[in-house]
Specification:
140 residues, 46% strand, 0% helix, mainly beta, 9-stranded antiparallel sheet, two-stranded antiparallel ribbon
Length: 140
Amino acid sequence: MRIARVLIGASVILIGTFSVYATGPQRARPLASDQHFEVEAYSNGAGWIVGDTNGDGRIDYALKLNDVFRKEMEAVDTNHDGRMDNFYFYRNEVLVREEIDSNHDGRIDLWVFLTGGIYIERYERDTNHDGVIDLVRRYD
């Protein structure tokens, strides 16, 4: 793989190759054991720190810390419908995966896997929302 670095102002843009392929039938991943869509699940004393980011009186952000107070997971209700739809998973406080319910139907349909907390390694998507991953894109 060949990567070109382009310097624009103070920003460096990496231009590389990536591969896209359709997968055979692959069932969507199940939710993590502590991942919930309903906002009320975060305010039940299960170790979540919650917030109301838009001031409407409803929880739309939740943060879970591990036993040494490091960020472990975040959940966000981006459209304020009472269900969490973006989930962020951390390892040693570095973002390693994001799971998104892009059409707000209560099911994850996009998984983004990161390296170093910022570089997308790959993503997997259920493009037609049938519970089967049908698109995988890898970045080299």
